[in-house]
Amino acid sequence: MNEFLTRAPFDLYELSLFRLVAELGSFTKAGQKAGLGQSAITRQIRGMEEQLGVALFERTTRQVNLSSAGRLLYEKSTPILAATEATLKQLREEFHLVPQTLRIGVARSIGLAYYPGFFFAFRKRQPAVQLQVVQLTSREILEAVEARTLDAGLLSPPRRMSGALAVTHRFDDEFTLVVPPDSKLPRDLASASVRTLRKLLAGERWLLIDPQGETGRALRHWLAGQDWPIEPAMELDSFDVIVNLVALGLGVSLVPHRVLALYGERRKIRRITLRPCFTRELAVVVRKNRQHPEPLASFIESVLF
Q1: Are 41 and 21 contacting, i.e. CB atoms less than 8 angstroms apart?
Q2: Domain check: are 194 and 273 in the same one?
Q3: For 182, which DSSP code?
Q4: Could you tell me how far CA 197 lies from the centroid of its own chain?
Q5: Would the CA dihedral through 239, 240, 242, 243 be positive or negative?
Q6: The domain spanning residue 240 has which CATH number?
Q7: What is the CATH number of the domain that holds 129?
Q8: What is the pLDDT of residues 43-72, one digit of tens each?
Q9: Is the domain of 270 the same as that of 286?
Q10: Among the four residues 36, 95, 103, 294, which has the most C-beta atoms within 10 Å?
């Protein structure tokens, strides 16, 4: 048994992908239905064939057919997967298995003030579902969603994404200028043009979001377009941290105005509206499936920006 476990040529997930390719006759179509790229599902099948030492498919430029070995595996795997599904159903019914788990990645540049909109309605609709929430970079989230280690991601999406991923929600997120309460700026200044602020803030210490993420890159591109070159004194990956540092008098910054919902006491930080203002896009990203399983479909429907 130990030898089998360490040398098993495939698992149930890979077996399911194999059957999907066999039924659809296409790696591309199977990948789309499974939420994977064509190259990813091809690697999975090739790994099975290498471990087994036989070809499971006969490939041509136009079609994919089962080989003799593939037909045997397909035939024998039918009762295996059917028995597995029946067993899991019986276990859930008789022993009340642990709740389903939904794995969500949230970009580090998204503040805590956004979380109620992401999760509150879902928790009311699906109280038995466990949520696993991790904070990662946008790139890490996209890779994890494509690799199926996350079910969905909340992030600022790049212009180009893998064909295996899809956006279900989009939201424009406007930024505002924040300065310490004792800033030298005129006390009655509630909004100002970029041109005016360039002069008023000359010599100030700037705290900016990390340029390695999509938000940081887009913000610097916008600043360059406004002819506003800024050399930050500090670069951080969290707007919540940036706002707190500004409140302590360590510098000024541009942050999403919604992040400030957690900072109701205006005397601790000053907000100034920019004309024009920088806007980023936030989105919900999932694998590109024709039909999303529960509870993911419920989560997608519940998200509020």
Answers
A1: yes
A2: yes
A3: T
A4: 34
A5: positive
A6: 3.40.190.290
A7: 3.40.190.10
A8: 889 989 998 999 999 988 778 999 999 999
A9: no
A10: 36
Asked which of 70, 95, 120 is the last residue of a domain, the reply is 95
Of 254, 255, 252, the closest CA to residue 204 belongs to 252
Based on the domain organization, do 106 and 80 belong to the same domain?
A: no
Domain range for 40? 2-95
Domain co-membership, 290 together with 167: yes
Task: Read off the tokens for 242.
Answer: 């940036």
Counting every residue written for the chain, the total comes to 305
Count the domains in the chain: 3
Same domain, 297 and 157: yes
pLDDT of residue 147: 87
Kindly report the pTM of this predicted structure: 0.68
Q: What is the pLDDT of residues 98-111, one digit of tens each?
A: 568 899 999 999 99
Instruction: Concatenate the DSSP letters of all residues of 4-41 into one string.
Output: HHHH-S--HHHHHHHHHHHHHT-HHHHHHHHT--HHHH
The helix (run of H) or strand (run of E) holding residue 188 is none
Element of type H or E holding 240: helix 239-247
Mean pLDDT of 275-287: 96
For residue 248, give the DSSP letter. T
Which among 12, 41, 10, 44 has a CA at the least distance from the CA of 26? 41
Check whether residue 153 and residue 226 sit in a common domain: no
